[in-house]
Amino acid sequence: MCADFPMKYILVTGGVISGIGKGIIASSIGTILKSCGLRVTAIKIDPYINIDAGTFSPYEHGEVFVLNDGGEVDLDLGNYERFLDINLYKDNNITTGKIYQHVINKERHGDYLGKTVQVVPHITDAVQEWVMNQAKVPVDDDKKEPQICVIELGGTIGDIEGMPFVEAFRQFQFKAKRENFCNIHVSLVPQPNATGEQKTKPTQNSVRALRGLGLSPDLIVCRSAKPIEMAVKEKISMFCHVEPEQVIFIHDVSSTYRVPILLEEQGIIKYFKQRLNLPIDDQPSDLLMKWKKMACRYERLLKVCSIALVGKYTKLSDCYASVFKALEHSALAINYKLDLMYIDSTELERSTEAENSVKYHQAWHKLCKADGILVPGGFGIRGTEGKLQAISWARTKKKPFLGVCLGMQLAVVEFARNCLNWEDANSTEFDPDTKNPVVIDMPEHNPGDMGGTMRLGKRRTVFKTENSVLRKLYGDEMFVEERHRHRYEVNPELTHCFEEKGLKFVGHDTEGSRMEIIELENHPYFVGVQFHPEFSSRPMKPSPPYLGLLLAATGTLNAYLQRGCKLSPSDSYSDLSDDSSPEKEFPYSDTS
């Protein structure tokens, strides 16, 4: 559709506070430009000194997102992949640690010919070179070079950690030339309860700081709890030295699917067309219309499906961001609203303390009323007994269950203890001296070096039987390729004992030595997967294991399988109009 032209760079910066939604804004801008027929890639810059996100506690930066190439990266790259339906690489996540490691290695090799190595120009040059090289890497299935690169600079303007990157882009705007470089600044407009007045001063100060560092915002995206008044827009325009149409409002909405729509409604396509000299139409293609229809349907859903997520990082929802999105994608695909109940697995463990006793009963009340149960991945022994209790409940009460990574391993442990009567069965991660090591560490696991030593990235899983629910959900393929992140695996020497009692290992790796998928006979849906299917879920292409859980939890799995794994008589997204009603429900039920 579009002729070739110089690479266009869109830098997204943030002010006032972190966690303001730069990742969603950057993803939405990419989605809008992709809907105009452009090829879009994305880069996330994290100013921390860590090489990657792999060794973080989830409470530090949320979940660790895993890419096809095994890169352990910031969760915002998950937003990019889901919104843009692309596959990024580990070098699409730049950290201070990576840049300094790169420069120091070059210095050790003598590449700087005896010069004094400094932040300017060596660090700043390295940042610019990295961005220019990575922007050219194809991220779509057609393997064509991208035309637009959206770059998100993490943190807030003024942070000491981010200064070298800001200076790098101050220089880069002249290297790329004005018609190929655009800066979008995302800022907060707070509204104190005491006065109810929307305050512009934080945004003014943030833009002033940005300009003082040599970057001038082309667009100011104002985040707020409620829609911003026109007088506030005019005030920001006047004091921040931009035209009123260059001030964009994004208030809190019911779902992130609304954000691209809000941006498009405020004329952002026309602005980019003129500012970056893009050969595109003023109106988006059908892709953005699908987003609009999806957002409308999300807001009008009536039926609710409740899923209990039993984990150890439940105090911060970002710890399970991809899991939540995968469940939401699947619920939306079958016209259900997701009610995700976070349960701290330690609270399922019986305690004699009065306070914990109350939490214990509350946690079990949530678990018992849930339509389905999910035990996600994780590390460490804390909370594992609670997870085992939840798995036992799902197995014995025939509640739909999905175990991911550690969740699958614990399902094997629970089955060994309660069905094979191996009372001390355990993972060697938690009990190295167990007499029944049903889960063992992998040969390549190196406990002396924590960073990047796990089995990471996209690996192939082969189905060894046609009689598999998950194989049918995947479209009856002989194999699937999903992303992994684990150090431990099911002991292959003991699998025959489980299969004799009905726990089937229906999928394994290409060599047949690593167990990848378990399914329990005579159960509505009891599935465990060693891989992390949530990382590959997309809004319009839900992950099959998660979709299976939602179908089973709503009582529609059998009918779905009988109908040839089709969500509806016609495509579940393209046939929706803006006035689609919630009565247009998923038409199958097991009682029909």
Q: Would you write up a description of this structure?
A:
The protein has 592 residues and is an alpha/beta fold. It folds into two domains: 9-296, 3-Layer(aba) Sandwich (Rossmann fold); 301-562, Rossmann fold (3-Layer(aba) Sandwich), CATH 3.40.50. The protein is 35% helix and 19% strand. The protein has helices spanning 22-35, 58-61, 76-84, 96-108, 119-135, 163-176, 201-212, 230-239, 259-265, 268-275, 286-300, 321-333, 354-369, 384-396, 406-418, 469-473, 495-500, 544-553, 557-562, and strands at 8-14, 40-46, 65-66, 72-73, 93-95, 148-153, 181-188, 219-224, 247-251, 304-311, 337-344, 372-375, 401-404, 426-427, 437-441, 455-463, 479-486, 488-490, 503-508, 515-520, 526-529. The strands form four sheets. Strands 11-10-12-13-21-20-19-16-17 form a nine-stranded mixed sheet, sandwiched between helices. A hairpin with a 5-residue loop joins strand 3 (65-66) and strand 4 (72-73). Helix 1 packs parallel to helix 3 (76-84), helix 4 packs across helix 5 (119-135) and helix 12 (321-333) crosses helix 18 (544-553). The longest helix is centred in the first third of the chain and has 17 residues, at 119-135. The protein is globular, with a radius of gyration of 25 Å. Mean pLDDT is 88; it is low at 569-592.
